């Protein structure tokens, strides 16, 4: 049976066979939750998403216990990034779609305060930004005034 390093490597390289073998185990979902890079805390989902290995993502997501899937998909690495952050930063629309479909929360912010839509904007991936704007409900977020540090009362129109 594949060890944790082999699963991380397979996800990063897009090698499906070791991952298929791993998921033949009983309690595979429970075991999968513990697979993380010891330094970065990146999961196999981070690795597959960052490298746009859609077939690996599809397989993993399909084989995770449905009740655990969203929690696993939203696991953070040492910088607070989820697999969706990495998919957004590398510009993989299909990876992002799979992750969101599996319960990934595009509103999760990393330690720098950035969510996945911001990462997609940084990557200048218009298709991905458009996808997020169409599918993610940002209205329930706290309203943030982007006023370049100007107090809110100064940003309102003044009576003349």
Topology:
Elements: H1 4-13, H2 16-22, H3 28-32, H4 44-50, H5 54-63, H6 69-73, H7 83-90, H8 93-101, H9 116-122, H10 126-135, H11 152-155
Pfam family, one: Ank_2
Protein name: Ankyrin repeat-containing protein YAR1
Keywords: ANK repeat, Repeat
- The number of strands is 0
**Number of H/I helices:** 11
Structural class: mainly alpha
Task: Quote the CATH topology.
Answer: Serine Threonine Protein Phosphatase 5, Tetratricopeptide repeat
Named CATH architecture:
Alpha Horseshoe
CATH class group: Mainly Alpha
Low-confidence stretches: 142-152, 154-160
Q: In the CATH hierarchy, what is the superfamily?
A: Ankyrin repeat-containing domain
Helix-residue proportion: 40-55%
Q: Quickly count the domains.
A: 1
Q: Compute the gyration radius: what is it?
A: 18 Å
What is the mean predicted local confidence, pLDDT?
88
Broad shape: globular
Main sheet characteristics: none
Distance between the termini: 75 Å
In N-to-C order, the SSE pattern is: HHHHHHHHHHH
Tell me what portion of residues adopts beta-strand conformation. under 5%
Protein name: Ankyrin repeat-containing protein YAR1
InterPro entries: Ankyrin_rpt, Ankyrin_rpt-contain_sf
Keywords: ANK repeat, Repeat
Organism: Wickerhamiella sorbophila
Q: Can you offer a commentary on this structure?
A:
- It is built from eleven helices and no strands.
- With 160 residues, the chain is an all-alpha fold.
- The chain has one domain: Alpha Horseshoe (Serine Threonine Protein Phosphatase 5, Tetratricopeptide repeat).
- Helix 1 crosses helix 2, helix 4 runs parallel beside helix 7 and helix 7 runs antiparallel to helix 8.
- The chain is globular, with a radius of gyration of 18 Å.
- The termini are far apart.
């Amino acid at each position: 049976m594949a060890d944790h390093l082999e699963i991380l490597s397979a996800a990063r390289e897009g090698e499906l066979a070791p991952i298929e073998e791993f998921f033949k185990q009983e309690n595979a979902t429970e075991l999968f939750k513990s697979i993380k890079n010891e330094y970065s805390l990146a999961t196999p989902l981070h690795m597959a998403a960052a490298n746009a290995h859609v077939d690996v993502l599809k397989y993993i997501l399909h084989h995770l216990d449905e009740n655990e899937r969203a929690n696993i998909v939203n696991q953070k690495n040492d910088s607070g990034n989820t697999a969706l952050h990495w998919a957004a930063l590398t510009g993989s629309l299909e990876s992002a779609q799979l992750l969101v479909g599996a319960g990934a929360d595009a509103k999760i912010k990393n330690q720098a305060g950035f969510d996945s839509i911001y990462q997609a904007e940084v990557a200048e991936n218009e298709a991905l930004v458009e996808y997020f704007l169409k599918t993610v409900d940002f209205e329930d977020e706290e309203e943030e005034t982007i006023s370049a540090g100007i107090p809110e009362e100064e940003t309102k129109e003044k009576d003349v």
